[in-house]
Prior knowledge:
Strands 1, 2, 3, 4, 5, 6, 7, 8 and 9 form a 9-stranded mixed beta sheet that branches. The chain is elongated, with a radius of gyration of 20 Å. Helix content is about 35%, strand content about 35%. Helix 2 packs antiparallel against helix 3. With about 160 residues, the chain is of the alpha+beta class. It comes from Daphnia magna. Keywords: Acetylation, ATP synthesis, CF(1), Coiled coil, Hydrogen ion transport, Ion transport, Membrane, Mitochondrion, Mitochondrion inner membrane, Transit peptide, Transport.
Amino acid sequence: MALTRSALRLFSGRFTQACQVRGYADSPSMSLTFAAPSQVLYNNISVKQIDVPSFSGSFGILPAHVPTLAVLKPGVVTVFENDGSTKKFFVSSGTVTINEDSTVQLLAEEAVPVDTLDISAAKELLAQSQSQLASASSEVAKAEAEISIEVSEALVKACE
């Protein structure tokens, strides 16, 4: 029992220190690096907010956000720039890292501006993916078709 109390005192002291160090959005912006294998969309650019799709649920990132590592799911990343403009990008998958110093790294497998997407092409891709699933004969082929359907459905939703 004494050991438990000592451990709790040790933990609570560290927790209090950690809470005192971190503030609430005391910085008006954060630094964003957003890249895909073929391009860099933002390279240490200061932004106000970022909204990202994640498998644990979509969430917003503000300055002084708690450090986080998350997996991106297919969907739309929205970047709120300091000048008030908003830019939207479709990502197929990737990771987001939020650091203690208000820097954020978004690494996407694919990233394209939403305004360049073609809804008819997205719907055609979805139909092809559904057809592949229906004709899949192995578990690997089924899994690949299901991933393609998930990305295609997110593409269609992003276009609408």
